[in-house]
Predict the 3D structure of the following.
Amino acid sequence: MATTLNRINALKQVAFRKGGFDSFIVFNSSNLTYFTGFSGASALLIPENGENTVYVYGVNYAQAKAELAEVKVELVERGENLIDKIAKQAKAFKIEKLAVDSLTIESWRALTKSLGSEKTLATDPNFIRDLRKVKDAKEIELMRKAAELTSEGMRAARETLAAGMREYEVAAEIEYAMRKQGCYGTAFDTIVASGVSSAFPHGGCSDRKIRKGDLVVVDVGATYKSYRSDMTRTFTAGKPSEKQEKLYQVVKTAQEKAFEAVKPNVKAADVDATARKIIADAGYGEYFVHNLGHGVGLEIHEPPTLSPDSKDVLAEGNVVTVEPGVYLVGYGGIRLEDTLLLQRKGAEKLTEGQSTLNKE
Ligand SMILES: [Mn+2]
């Protein structure tokens, strides 16, 4: 696979040509997975002149040698210091102006000291963030699969959820269904939040017994080969009340209008505003207490952000969630969420599933 070199070259293009750097060190684990497809790397040194080098500790060395064909694999031996080792290599490559994606303060200090004062060290001005926002064909294929598995999980929730069950039992059914279909893990801790807990956007999943008449927020995500997906539905245990149906329609309309607004070249803040206005006009503006959505990929929350203060402009290849919600503390909450892929003309829903409050 030439994926690693393609992505490294894309970074070189912006970081070296536009940014004026002559090398880049990747430390962030999602970024390392993005460039290498391997989750056990500790650092990746990308010099303008020299070999791209991945640093791994002994525990991951054999796997790195087996899986990484496009970069040099360097073993960090017992007793060796990773930062010193990289600095030494950087000097050998005659590196002058280095960018890093993320580093602890301690490591930053150590690297600065190791490199010496004549070298320039700077943080990535969002080069990788911007690359990762636009998914390539390979990523889209994996995200489709992750979304399909997520939809399977939601289907299981719809089929099994009933009054008398405990929240964790519903979560178990969801995760079992996704696992059976081939998911690699959950993208985040499954949320099954019933009754008063449904009014907390991150209500979690407890041993609470679901009662008749409860609103139940189910937020599910599957991971497939490191790529994630995100989906939420809200159900009632038993027949919904008039108030529940009314609230649900507000959130559903907000989501549908946001779907129509999600397009390339549109400001993410404007999509947020579209959904927020519908909820505000219905009188629930103050109860929509979070952003409309977020990017998804190797991480469950990544750029672009669909929020009132977002500076992002949406583009073809973005994968984002649209998830309006209304939360009435002491009563219950409703959220609807799907993961969308931005195509040239509009958004395609990657997660698929019925959207009704009443399960029957
Ligand atoms: Mn989400």
In short: The first helix runs from residue 3 to 18.
